[in-house]
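User: Predict the complex.
Assistant: Input components as received:
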Amino acid sequence: MNKTKTKKARRKRAAPVSAKPGRTEKSVARREAILAAALEEFAARGFEGARLDDVARRAGVAKGTIYLHFRDKETLFQELIRSTLTPIVAMIEAAGKTDMPLRAVFDHLAGAFVREVLGTQRKDIVRLILSEARRFPKLAEYYYREVPERAFAAVRGLVRKAIDRGEIVDDTLFWFPQLIIAPALVAVVWDGLFDKYEKLDAEAMLRAHFNLVFNAIERRPS
Amino acid sequence: MNKTKTKKARRKRAAPVSAKPGRTEKSVARREAILAAALEEFAARGFEGARLDDVARRAGVAKGTIYLHFRDKETLFQELIRSTLTPIVAMIEAAGKTDMPLRAVFDHLAGAFVREVLGTQRKDIVRLILSEARRFPKLAEYYYREVPERAFAAVRGLVRKAIDRGEIVDDTLFWFPQLIIAPALVAVVWDGLFDKYEKLDAEAMLRAHFNLVFNAIERRPS
Amino acid sequence: MNKTKTKKARRKRAAPVSAKPGRTEKSVARREAILAAALEEFAARGFEGARLDDVARRAGVAKGTIYLHFRDKETLFQELIRSTLTPIVAMIEAAGKTDMPLRAVFDHLAGAFVREVLGTQRKDIVRLILSEARRFPKLAEYYYREVPERAFAAVRGLVRKAIDRGEIVDDTLFWFPQLIIAPALVAVVWDGLFDKYEKLDAEAMLRAHFNLVFNAIERRPS
Amino acid sequence: MNKTKTKKARRKRAAPVSAKPGRTEKSVARREAILAAALEEFAARGFEGARLDDVARRAGVAKGTIYLHFRDKETLFQELIRSTLTPIVAMIEAAGKTDMPLRAVFDHLAGAFVREVLGTQRKDIVRLILSEARRFPKLAEYYYREVPERAFAAVRGLVRKAIDRGEIVDDTLFWFPQLIIAPALVAVVWDGLFDKYEKLDAEAMLRAHFNLVFNAIERRPS
DNA sequence: CATGAATGAGAATTCATTCAT
DNA sequence: CATGAATGAATTCTCATTCAT
């Protein structure tokens, strides 16, 4: 008689909607406070390690309040990732539509990355994705669709245009757009793990990388 | 921050010595079995998510036996990382002492990386470090001293020799040795998160990267 | 992204077997202690109202120990019902196979019921079934198959034989075997709810009921 | 026993008066809506299992509104039972005052029971009393005074009159009036637990029961 | 009166760690 | 050395009740 069920599947009708509930300023503010607190805690301890108790305390709300805004811990985590990603995705989309020279676009994106990601808590979100997405396949797919897939499609478009315009003579970046962002990944990881042992000037590294790459692929004046 | 570190300080009396205990064959075999099982479980669920119960079951030993070989869960985790790292460190040391042309050394290391890391469970160890090391500063430092510090020192030595020999004309890699391994990091991350959505030919990517880099820095025959 | 799932479905591999785990005397004794404590608590507060904390305390074990023997609260509840029912089912089966006069069989069963059910904690189990089975359809079906279905089949067999033998001249009990046990149900309910306000001599009531019934259906010597 | 009654005594300040509040039509309607919703929820999940959230939703009021009409969950429960019982008590009182033949009275009551209880949600109230009254001694006593005590007094009066009039020759029902309603109890229980496995024609069963009983006790024309 | 967001005391369940056998 | 039953602190999630609007 039901020996093998995995879990109780406790009651839970009429889901707490998860997304934006009330509309009051207070309500929105609380939601933001919870997300901010969650970012700190998840970043510091990972998904499993973070305690909702601490999130609540840090957000200045009662434990139960979290559940008025997010169905459960996992939902809170995913909403956190999502809401942080949205503006980044917008930035990527915008970058793909420009007609500036390739090098200029990358320089601009590198600056934005250093300023808007590395320089803010958004880098923690990136780290969280690196650390946890594997255990949340839905999240991994969402992230894949929103970020690398779009970003690489944009890069490919830009590279093709640059070739067509004669700016560059090599299509390596078309086939491996990963190569252009690889140092950014290094920067995030380094910042999280080794910064206290050795500083890394991420912006300089990114610039050096672009120099190498464009030195290799730019049309050289004979 | 880090206000409420209640957790990690539970009971912990008379520590069972931790390191390599007896010398019996059986004992050593058990230790290996536990480490192998731990790798699987930690890789699949992360440090917090893994259960020693599952490690024991997978290793075919009783739960208590784990404690005969490792002081606690954290020690098991760190020993796992350490023991996996040892041969990699040796490889790095060896690579730094060669006199082969720089390009040849990197090609060789890339092959070794694809074969010995990406193609084995060692990639899971790398991922675990990326994911968890932040919460284990001791581990992060150990890893930093053993791997990137040594590896980058080796790279710097090789680069200097290559410049001295006139093989290359650019010292970017001396200042940012990270740039040469960045795509390897991408490969590990991609493999863990996105492989099911889009395959990535890591070896081809690494080769393409070297082509770009060396095209940029090699002395060009006038 | 998975907005509508009902519950976390937390990990739970390799079910804790639920039934008899170890084989030690101690283990069996603990299991019994837990079941006994559970009976008290469930009987006093119902399924939802009972707290496993109290069950553990009453059984003299730690909270976690309960989970070594029973997958969860529901399983504990159902095993409790089941293990109590088993001997009752056996009794019913035996009663159906006799060749005694119908009246004698019922007299015997009534005695057994008063002695073995009303006079023991088994009456609490009956009450629990009345109270809770509706919320555990699996349990309700199990109970139905084991008790009323068998019991009424037995009654019908006995009634038919009694008619064939000319003991009784009426087949009402064949069509409504419920009528013969109805007062027993009243006795259980009364005992639970009203005994403190007015005592009910259950045995006398059952006897009076049989007198009525047999007075109505027995072949009357013209 | 009952060592650890921690539960039922949480906060409870400035009680909101409990009983019938305002007099507005709206107010009365709301109260009725809440009671109706409460019946559904308590019947489906029991006292502990029912959630006031669901009651409020079903009644179309806010959660706080319940507390404007009922002091707390327990009060709501008891008022529900009480208000449902009132008309039943009236029916019993009326039945006790008739001068119809005993058999006719019972036939009439059986019809009323099938129509007004079994055929309506009132049967759920009966079930709730069977299930929960034990945990609410006040409720049990109230119910005892209002229903069985009165009903059995009425039955005894009717029986005595029937004997005096020479309708029946046996006083069993005087001593055990429970015997006359026992099948009704069976009908309620069966309906709740086993109806899906086997239908029970309650009315036919009650009639068959009366036939048996009156066949046994009616003065037989010599 | 009505609302429903907020609260926080629980309650079920998990799992690292211990220890008697 | 090995075992695995037992422990109990910790953690997530629930829901009766309150109270500011």
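Residues 152 and 178 of chain A are 7 Å apart (CA to CA).
Let me know if you want any component modeled separately.
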